[in-house]
Write a structure and sequence with these properties.
disordered C terminus; 6 helices; about 30% helix; alpha+beta; two-stranded antiparallel ribbon; 5-stranded antiparallel sheet
Length: about 300
C-alpha cells in the first residue's frame, strides 16, 4: 500500500485528526502489552485476557507496569502531535545482570561472556513520519482534549475509548476501516512474536522515539526523555553537540539500528491514518543464538560476525 502523497493539502479536520492520533495512542498501548506478553518480559501469569479491536489481547495486571506504559505512551503522543517524531520503537534489551537461574547453572555459558549487558535484541518499530502535527503542539492538543471531554458529558458520543464526539455522518473517516487495519496489525504482530525463539530470562525493555529531520529534542523539566546510546543514534543530528558524548552528529548510523534481520509486519492505511510497523532483530541476538546452539552441540562450529 503506497503512503499518502506528501506536500498535498489534507482534508483531515481537527476533530478527525484528534481521534486518529488518540486511536494510535490506544493501539500503541495495546501493542506494548502484547509484546511484553509474547516475548515473556514479565511472567505470563501476570497478564489478564481482555479484548481490543474485537480481538483477545493480553494486558499486564501490575499497577506500576500499567502506569509506566501509560506514561510512556502519553510522552510519545506529545512528541507526535508536536511533529517531532519519525519513528517509535519498543526496544528489548538483554539482561542487565545475570539471571539467578542461569548463574547457578554450570552447563550454560554466562550471558555476560556472550553479549554485553543491555544489548539490543529486538526493536519493534512504528513509522509515524506521515502523521500530521497538531496546530500549537502538545499544549494545544491537551486543551482540545479537555474541551471535548467537557462537551462529551453533554452530548451523545461515539462509543470508543479516547475518541472525540464524531459520528459517521459528520466524519469522512470510515471508522470500521480504521479498526480493521489496527486489528490486522495486532494480529500480524502476534503471529510474528509467536514464531520467534524464546529470549533469555531477565530481559528488559524501553520505549524510544527517533526524531525527524526537523524534530526538536524534548528537553525540559521534568525530563521525560534521555538520549539513546550512540549505537542507537541515527545518522545526522545536531552538528553543534559534543562528539565525545556520542549524542551529537554521527557520520554513520548506529550499529544497532536496522539489526541483523528485519521482518515487515504491516502497513496500516485507512483514510488519513497511515503508518508502517516492522521488527528488527539485533546482531546481539544472532550472536546469542549461535552461542546457545553451540553450547547444546548444535549449529555451525565457527561464527563470522554479521556485516
Amino acid at each position: 500500500m503506497p503512503p499518502p502523497v506528501l506536500g498535498q493539502p489534507t482534508t483531515t479536520t481537527v476533530d478527525e485528526a484528534h481521534v486518529l492520533l488518540s486511536s494510535f495512542n490506544s493501539f500503541l498501548t495495546v501493542a506494548i502489552h502484547s509484546i511484553l506478553y509474547y516475548r515473556n518480559i514479565y511472567p505470563q501469569e501476570t497478564f489478564l485476557t481482555t479484548r481490543a479491536y474485537n480481538l483477545p489481547v493480553h494486558q499486564n495486571r501490575h499497577p506500576k507496569v500499567c502506569s509506566w506504559i501509560n506514561d510512556a505512551v502519553s510522552a510519545v503522543g506529545e512528541q507526535i502531535v508536536s511533529g517531532n517524531v519519525a519513528r517509535v520503537a519498543v526496544v528489548i534489551h538483554s539482561p542487565l545482570r545475570e539471571p539467578p537461574s542461569q548463574s547457578q547453572s554450570q552447563s550454560d555459558t554466562p550471558l555476560s561472556s556472550t553479549v554485553p549487558p543491555g544489548s539490543v535484541l529486538e526493536r519493534w518499530s512504528f513509522d509515524v513520519s506521515h502523521f500530521p502535527s497538531w496546530p500549537g503542539g502538545a499544549k494545544a492538543f491537551k486543551t482540545f482534549e479537555r474541551v471535548i471531554r467537557n462537551e462529551a458529558k453533554r452530548e451523545e458520543t461515539r462509543d470508543r475509548p479516547g475518541s472525540a464526539f464524531i459520528t459517521s455522518s459528520s466524519s469522512g473517516v470510515k471508522w470500521p476501516d480504521v479498526d480493521e487495519q489496527l486489528r490486522g496489525a495486532l494480529r500480524r504482530m502476534t503471529s510474528a512474536a509467536e514464531k520467534l525463539d524464546a529470549l533469555p530470562e531477565g530481559c528488559t525493555f524501553t520505549v524510544a522515539v527517533e526524531l525527524g529531520d526537523e524534530g526538536v529534542a524534548p528537553i525540559g523539566y521534568p525530563q521525560a526523555w534521555i538520549p539513546s546510546e550512540p549505537n542507537l543514534q541515527p545518522a545526522g543530528g545536531n552538528t553543534d553537540a559534543d562528539e565525545e558524548s556520542g549524542y551529537g552528529n554521527a557520520a554513520r548510523q548506529g550499529k544497532d539500528l536496522g539489526g541483523a534481520r528485519t521482518t515487515p509486519i504491516r502497513s496500516v492505511g485507512a483514510g488519513p491514518l497511515y503508518f508502517e510497523c516492522w521488527l528488527e532483530e539485533g546482531k546481539a541476538k544472532e550472536v546469542l543464538a549461535f552461542s546457545q546452539a553451540k553450547a547444546k552441540g548444535k549449529g555451525k562450529t565457527t561464527y563470522e560476525d554479521p556485516p
